[in-house]
Design goal:
9% helix, mainly beta, six-stranded antiparallel barrel, 1 helix, lipopolysaccharide transport protein A fold
């Protein structure tokens, strides 16, 4: 064989070696800690909750993750959540908004953080940085600074406890009651 023929066969063999790749599926690592991965990951969610066929609540959130394999299963809303409550005529009569939320499934406790703003059915505005809602005990509470704007007064305090409708509440460490002029 001459050198041209030998070079040709070397090129052909090398070409065949490098062009014949395996068609086997790519292996990926197993999930080592299932608790760190959400079972459900949803984006741009809007859902309604009804009672006896009547719409009572609407929930909007940019992201909703459910971690069901965690030692304490929870839902997380890393970019916040907005709840609205409807009366019998489907008019929004109360709402709550925050920049981050977490719901502990077993304990039935919501933690709302970051620019928490809630309006109750009496039109009072509650503003704080952190708020907890214990659904089992039907209580809402906070140890953070809170500002409650009523029709005639603004109440400022550090911490409060309330029923879950936020209509009967006690403000702790009251720092001021400011009359509002019409």
């Amino acid at each position: 064989m001459n050198s041209i023929t030998t070079a040709f066969w070397v090129v052909v063999v090398l070409f065949l070696l490098f062009s014949c790749q395996s068609n086997a599926p790519e292996q990926i690592d197993a999930v080592l800690n299932r608790a760190e991965i959400p079972r459900l990951h949803s984006l741009d969610v809007t859902t309604v909750i009804s009672d006896s066929g009547i719409t009572r609540y609407r929930i909007n959130t940019p992201q909703w993750d459910i971690f069901d394999k965690s030692s304490q299963p929870y839902w997380e809303f890393p970019y916040g959540v907005h709840f609205e409550r409807f009366d019998e005529q489907l008019v929004i009569d109360a709402n709550i908004h925050c920049e981050y939320a977490k719901f502990l499934e077993h304990d039935q406790i919501w933690e709302l953080k970051g620019n928490v703003r809630a309006t109750n059915i009496q039109g009072e505005l509650f503003e704080t940085e952190q708020l907890f809602w214990n659904q089992k005990n039907e209580k809402i509470y906070s140890d953070s600074l809170i500002k409650i704007t009523q029709e005639n007064y603004i109440i400022i305090g550090k911490g409060f406890e309330s029923n879950q409708e936020m209509t009967k509440y006690q403000v702790k460490q009251t720092q001021g009651i400011i009359p509002v002029n019409d």
